[in-house]
Amino acid sequence: MPYFEIVLFYYNPNIAPESEFDRRLATQKQLLEKLEHPYPITLIAPPYDDKPLWDAVKGVEHTPEMGERCERCIAQRIQESLIAAERYGCDYVTTTLTVSPHKNAPYINACLEQIAAGKSVRYLASDFKKRGGYARSVALSAEYELYRQDYCGCVFSKEEQENK
Predict the structure, then answer these.
(1) How far apart are alpha carbons 66 and 103 in whole angstroms?
(2) What is the gyration radius of the CA atoms in the chain, in angstroms?
């Protein structure tokens, strides 16, 4: 945060149900209110719309977690993030998806690099789970008293979690 003016794009058509989307957005806003930061953080949060997810995963809805369905979901969200970054005049884009131990950071970074090719915005590769990043996210969530979900967000992940 001391090096960048941050535009946070909260784009999550994968989250189900809508009440979960709203709860996670409220948690994001709660964190922004509590954080001390040298520059204002702009939060852009398009309204809930799960149609882009369904369009992206059509035909692979029932493939296993971390497979083609997840890759298509991630690619669709990255695509929209890059469009928004260009629209808002951002110089760089990155994603917090890589903080999860259940997400494939090399795939996410390769996808981000490929989609960013030829665009005015550059990407910052990340693997936020490294060097204790995931554990740090859990500790910060506790410190700031934030809600933490127990599934990635999509209806498929929610069903898998409920069936465990």
Answers:
(1) 7
(2) 16
Counting Cα atoms < 13 Å in the Cβ hemisphere of 22 gives 3
Could you give phi then psi for residue 42, rounded to 5 degrees? Answer: -90, 125
pLDDT tens-digit readout, 83-96: 999 999 999 998 88
3-state secondary structure of 60: coil
Q: Say whether pLDDT at 1 is over 70.
A: no
Peptide bond into 38 cis (omega under 30): no
3-state helix, strand, coil in the chain (%, to 5): 50, 5, 45
Which DSSP string do the residues of 104-142 spell out, in sequence order? -HHHHHHHHHHHHTTSSSEE----TTGGGHHHHHHHHHH
pTM for this model (two decimals): 0.84
Q: Give just the sign of the alpha carbon dihedral 46, 107, 155, 164.
A: negative
